[in-house]
């Protein structure tokens, strides 16, 4: 299943979708415009710093 970024229209990498199944923005647009995804500890199971590290890992 491919999902495209709602802003730039580029395909969102599947690694990002695996990490953030509900996201609708690619990493670049999430950084530029802010993510549409608000992690909640109970849902994501990680704190915000871990979440940011994960985004960095997905990007590389
Ligand atoms: Zn984008």
Please summarize what this structure is:
The protein is mostly helical.
What does the largest sheet look like? Answer: none
Number of strands: 0
Radius of gyration: 11 Å
- Secondary structure tally, helices: 4
Q: List low-confidence stretches.
A: none
**Per DSSP, what share of the residues sits in E-state strands of 2 or more residues?**
under 5%
Question: Which ligands accompany this protein?
Answer: zinc ion
Q: What percent of the residues sit in helical stretches (DSSP H or I)?
A: 40-55%
Calculate the mean pLDDT score and round it: 80
Label the overall shape. globular
Can you characterise this structure?
This protein has 60 residues and is an all-alpha fold. It has one domain. The chain contains four helices and no strands. The mean pLDDT is 80. It binds zinc ion. The site of zinc ion (ZN) has 8 residues, from α2.
List keywords for this structure.
binds zinc ion, single chain, 48% helix, mainly alpha, 60 residues, 0% strand
Which helices and strands occur, and which strands form pairs?
Blueprint: H1 14-19, H2 27-33, H3 41-44, H4 48-59
Bound molecules: zinc ion.
């Amino acid at each position: 299943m491919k999902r495209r970024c709602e802003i730039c229209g580029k395909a969102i990498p599947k690694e990002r979708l695996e990490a953030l199944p509900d996201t609708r923005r690619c990493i670049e647009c999430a950084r530029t415009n802010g993510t549409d995804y608000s992690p909640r500890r109970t849902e994501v199971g990680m704190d915000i710093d871990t979440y940011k590290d994960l985004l960095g890992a997905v990007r590389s």
